[in-house]
Amino acid sequence: MERLDKFLCGSGAGTRSQVKELLKAGRVTVDGKTERDPGRKVDPAAQEICLDGGALGAKRRMVVMLNKPAGFVTATEDRQEKTVMELLPENLRHMDLKPVGRLDKETEGLLLFTNDGALLHRLIAPKKRVEKEYYARHEGQAAPEDVAAFEKGLTLADGTVCLPAVLMPLGPGESLVTVVEGKYHQVRRMLASRGMRVTYLERRREGGLTLGALPRGTVRELTDEELGELEDGFQ
Ligand code: URA
Fold first, then answer.
1. Stretch (H or E) spanning 149
2. Residues enclosing ligand 1, CB less than 6 A?
3. 216 Cα–ligand 1 center, Å
4. DSSP H/E element including 136
């Protein structure tokens, strides 16, 4: 069971406030009877919910990709900080999207959102071991011993043991890092543990999904091909 207003928003009937007006105006019926209470609990699988006489289908599953800019926290709400939810365009704000995993406030790049709770849990389950690739700018320069230490699996200063990861030096102060887990501040802490403090971090890939040319601060829906990839590659 879910709230009627939530179901109406999720099925694309409108924003929270538009839905309130639709209900007030008597344009919504549940099993043939006009329903004006936004908080009424409904079971969309078992009840017929209509707007202006037309039946509303189940919530449309949606997965979108954001190219996150620095300065936004990955949270659905925060008292002090700007959240990634503020970067979603108005037409996606009422789709009940939640961030998949987390990027630090200052980290940029690929962040997925979905309104499919089951998919969300599958994607963030630690045993999934989904590859995540980061571009990092950092102090110092990665040496062959650092590459080997990443490959072996680092132990951080607080004793946290990391799974084997790939460090690929790109040049002085620049590397690509690929990890298969998502511990707190992981990439920053891994590089710092080898004396390379991170000054910039961008996630460029998750599994087979890449940021491509998506401009910073913008969002796009995944293509059907990418959704297939997500289901297969992230199994
Ligand atoms: N590792 C980090 O240190 N920060 C992120 O945001 C993601 C991975």
1. helix 144-152
2. 103-104, 107, 185-188, 201
3. 17
4. strand 132-138
- pLDDT at position 59 is 61
User: What positions carry a catalytic annotation?
Assistant: 104
Encoded tokens for 186: 């992981």
pLDDT tens per residue, range 145-157: 999 999 999 999 8
pLDDT in tens, 126-180: 777 889 999 999 999 999 999 999 999 999 989 999 999 999 999 999 999 999 9
With a cut of 80, say whether residue 235 has pLDDT above it: no
Instruction: Give the separation between CA 235 and CA 230, rounded to whole angstroms.
Output: 8
CA-based torsion, 224, 108, 103, 91: positive or negative: negative
Tokens 């030096």 belong to residue:
169
What does the pLDDT read at residue 233?
Answer: 61
Which ligand 1 atom lies nearest to the CA of residue 132? 8
Per the CB < 8 A criterion, the answer to whether 197 and 142 are in contact is no
Residues in the chain: 235
Distance CA 4, CA 10 (A): 10
Q: Which H/E stretch holds residue 29?
A: strand 28-30
Centroid of ligand 1 to alpha carbon of 27 (angstroms): 47
> For residue 163, how far is its CA from the centre of ligand 1 (angstroms)?
15
Cross-strand pairs, 51: 28, 54
> Is residue 114 within 8 Å of residue 98, measured between CB atoms?
yes
